[in-house]
Specification:
Largest interface: A-B, 32 and 32 residues
CATH topology of chain A: TIM Barrel
Oligomer: homodimer
Order of helices and strands of chain A: HHHHEEEHHHEHHHEHEHEHEHEH
Largest sheet of chain A: 7 strands, parallel
Number of helices of chain A: 15
Structural class of chain A: alpha/beta
Shape of chain A: globular
Radius of gyration of chain A: 19 Å
Helix content of chain A: 40-55%
Strand order of the largest sheet of chain A: 1-4-5-6-7-8-9
CATH architecture of chain A: Alpha-Beta Barrel
Distance between the termini of chain A: 25 Å
């Protein structure tokens, strides 16, 4: 069992820096595209054998130090009563978005062991095959609320912010409902075998520090406090978070995600070294020539030095067009370069 | 002549904080929608009488302290040889995007006094009518290059970064050509009557600090050094710039734009108080109830205090759906609250 990743989450010494990539099970791999040519995204998510298969594809092909269960952050919205569809080329679409107090009140409680049983089934199947730790995950309340309210991706979060500012009590009720569902969902994932949890607050960078403090922080703090009792490390991830990092740490998590807009050592110093960090290569770097990729990997690994508690990752998900050779090269570079630094 | 805005650009004392909004001539005003119902965006830009009319609409309706010439940052790309179209509901589309060295070499030099004469004409018409200062503007080289390369708006800047990383010499040549065109274009705007210049590096927040330093900073420094010789204040604007601000200041500009992701006083302290700042209300705030808007205006005005050199603005352009009452209320609040603080 390769436990570098678990050790790094807990800031324990490792022989080499662990690496995994967000969306590592994805379209950049032909094996994944072959599955998706035959099955919709939702079918893959809801068929434990298929979810298991695609989860394992990058593990079998590359030297990744962690696996993440294949699923989508929007899955828990279905049993809450939302009508979810993935429209080809357009991304997720929610046909009955949440706009009013009535809509929020109508959201159904979720028993994840029942309505999301397929995720737990997939986790069990994957665990039986793995020799690296398995990450379970969920979207964070703000990011999920933004999809529920906007009905899909958004540029300006107009309706989300309208609710936050104009009906803060309705917003808080929605965030509380989401927090309840997510805590139960993640608890079920741990029971099924998830060894680490990651919370994706992917779009949180749309908020001002004041709005984060008022509309998101209390809910994140409550959620992360509850996750803390599950006994597994928790990764708290976001993008565009340069001015939110300290509040994210205060909200909780054993590991804080860093995107490429911050210099890793400066962001870690700001956070304090009593927390681990994950990141922070720009996913677009993987389209550069290998010599250029190497400079950037060098830069991150050098900024970390011998300090324990760094998990190498991209700052956001890997893109579908990414060359396989770049993925392979980065993993090898990180392992070799960090091993050399750590042994020095 | 109301010269609060000019004074604030130069960090001179004012009686009240000047206010203007990016995209203040825009769809949130019925008068603007009426014009656009009859004429395409490009037609309005290219017809000096129409550009003048829409530029003046917000000035005649609201108590703004500055005017900005109505134009689009992509206009200079046309005489460079790009085929530009604004597709309804989809935004700008460039039908012959730049992808190769050959494409960059084929870009034409621009004599703005000829091919962009309509902008200078509009500036002259507007100046004759105004009793507040007039801002001329252009997109920054990175932001324009991203449109030229992607062919439109982008989420990940895949092809832009591919060129930056994979063909840095071609990238530098493109940035140099753009810098030349932009300096000449802005010089012509000043000759026509623009009293302040704003450079929009709207999408610069997509870059890591290291990439900004390597691929953008030298070009911005050259451009801003040249603009500095024109004898008018220059506003250097971007979004998502929390970790780029100090380099932006180093590149140049009398005023640095701040979006809502930073707290104004902290960002200003980071920049140093030897530069003015502009911002930083989230445009989405204008959809909040007036009482909530007031809290946020109070917060910004209080963070500034008596320090000279603040121009109140949104952190990015005003949205088409924005209520007119909010615009009116914010302008009045800023004037009254700041006047009270400054007089105390």
């Amino acid at each position: 069992m390769n436990d570098r990743f678990l050790k790094a989450c807990l800031r324990q010494p490792v022989d080499a820096t662990p690496v995994w990539f967000m969306r590592q099970a994805g379209r950049y791999m032909k094996a994944f595209r072959d599955i998706r040519a035959k099955h919709s995204l939702l079918t893959v998510c809801k068929t434990p054998e298929l979810a298991c298969e695609v989860t394992l594809q990058p593990i079998n092909r590359f030297d990744f130090d962690a696996s993440i269960i294949f699923a989508d952050i929007l899955l828990p919205l279905e049993p809450m009563g939302l009508n979810l569809e993935f429209v080809k080329g357009e991304g997720p679409c929610i046909h009955n978005p949440i706009r009013s107090e009535k809509d929020v009140d109508a959201l159904k409680p979720v028993v994840p062991q029942e309505s999301l049983a397929y995720v737990m089934e997939a986790i069990k199947l994957v665990r039986a095959e793995l020799n690296v730790p398995l990450i379970g995950f969920a979207g964070a309340p703000f990011t999920l609320a933004s999809y529920m309210i906007e009905g899909g991706s958004s540029r300006n979060y107009l309706d989300t912010k309208k609710m936050m500012y104009g009906a803060p009590d309705v917003w808080d009720r929605l965030m509380k409902k989401l927090t309840r569902v997510l805590a139960d969902y993640l608890s079920a994932q741990v029971d099924a075998g998830a060894q680490v949890l990651q919370i994706f607050d992917s779009w949180i960078g749309a908020l001002s520090p004041g709005d984060y403090r008022r509309y998101v922080f209390p809910h994140m703090k409550r959620l992360l406090s509850e996750l803390h009792t599950f006994g597994v490390p928790v990764i708290h991830f976001g993008t565009g978070t340069a001015t939110l990092l300290q509040m994210q740490k205060e909200a909780g998590g054993d590991v804080i995600g860093l995107d490429w807009r911050v210099n890793l050592d400066e962001a870690w110093a700001l956070l304090g070294h009593d927390v681990a960090v994950q990141g922070n290569l720009d996913p677009l770097t993987l389209f550069a020539p290998i010599s250029e990729i190497e400079k950037r990997v060098d830069d991150i690994v050098t900024r970390v030095g011998k300090r324990p508690g760094h998990i190498f990752n991209l700052g956001h998900g890997i893109l579908p067009e990414t060359p396989l050779e770049s993925v392979e090269a980065v993993i090898q570079m990180v392992h070799e370069k960090s091993a050399k630094i750590l042994a020095a």
